[in-house]
Amino acid sequence: MAINNRLTQTLAIEHPILLAPMDVVSGGKLAAAVTHAGGLGLLGGGYGDGGWIEREWTRAGNARIGCGFITWSLAQRPELLKSVLARQPAAVMLSFGDPRPFGAAILAAGAKLICQVQSVAQAREAADAGADVIVAQGTEAGGHGQSQPLFTLLPQVVDACPDVPVAAAGGIADGRGLAAAMMLGAEGVLIGTRFYASQEADGHPEAKRRIVAAEGGQTVRSIVFDLSRRNRWPDPYTGRVLRNRHTDQWLGREAELEARADEVARDYAAARERGDFDVAGVIAGEACGLIHDIPAAGDIVQRIVAEAERLLPPRLGGAG
Q1: Is residue 304 classed as helix, strand or coil in its secondary structure?
Q2: Of 133, 166, 267, 294, which alpha carbon lies 20 to 30 A from 184's?
Q3: Beta strands 219-222 and 238-242: pairing type?
Q4: What is the DSSP letter of 256?
Q5: How far lies 150's CA from each of 120, 137, 169, 181, in Å?
Q6: Which residues contact 239 (CB under 8 A, 6 or more apart)?
Q7: pLDDT tens for the 320 residues of the chain, in order
Q8: What are phi and psi of 18, to 5 degrees?
């Protein structure tokens, strides 16, 4: 059996699995691999490096992919959206900001609009913007987010937006996570950390090794790594990373860190350059406790789908 629902139909994909558009990590090779496996690959447009996006789109070859943006950052460089839409993307994903200024242009270009949200109020805003898919992101997710856990956020978003298919994000790394999310009303999942630890991801080998070695509870949500790279995010967003010597040194001392921003930023940038992840942050979520290898992205998709289909009841596309 195959999982076939509004999300797979809306996005014209075989499997209800989306690649999280992780900044720099979700490059063309990874996005293409997820798409070729039957999901939807999304480039990590992040803060908006136009040259990087162009290079990675070319690297993806003829794969049908999309692109994700940090919405508040895109508002500072709106011309990037025009260049991406010229590529005829399968979808554009907006996260962390009001999608309404960009939604109409995305939809008019024929791309699907995916909006990631962290609250019910944001979900309603996304629906009003014409979102084709809403991603409910729980606090378990790696990178930036807010405080509400997926287990309670997801069904609230599903209830609030019955006319829009919802995908779940945060703490999902296997078929059990996909099956659980679907039992809570989701019609698919958006996955980051599990794909970070894949062969095609553009992450440092040591960062991938640390994700595999980490156990649940070894991540922390804070503003330390944002302050350390002089990239202060708007409230109430914080970032989840693996704990390391740097986070342990500065947690609870954020005011002092900010006062020493120039010095710390220089040391932090140098650490990133040399691959020193005792200082530089590995952006990863609580799913790291479920990750034990670094396979090909296509194998990850197939594993997740096969396990979920065994667990799900027939009404949701499973064999159970």
Answers
A1: helix
A2: 294
A3: antiparallel
A4: H
A5: 12, 6, 7, 9
A6: 143, 144, 145, 221, 222, 223, 225, 226, 233, 281, 283
A7: 689 999 999 999 999 999 999 999 999 999 999 999 999 999 999 888 899 999 999 999 999 999 999 999 999 999 999 999 999 999 999 999 999 999 999 999 999 999 999 999 999 999 999 999 999 999 999 999 999 999 999 999 999 999 999 999 999 999 999 999 999 999 999 999 999 999 999 999 999 999 999 988 899 999 999 999 999 899 999 999 999 999 999 999 999 999 998 999 999 999 999 999 999 999 999 999 999 999 999 999 999 999 999 999 998 888 77
A8: -115, 140
Count of all residues that appear for the chain in the document: 320
To 10 degrees, what angle do helices 175-183 and 297-311 make?
50
The pTM assigned to this predicted structure is 0.96
Pair of tokens at residue 30: 């990874």
The crossing angle, in degrees rounded to 10, of helices 50-59 and 28-36 is 40
Decide if 318 contacts 312 (C-beta within 8 A).
Answer: yes
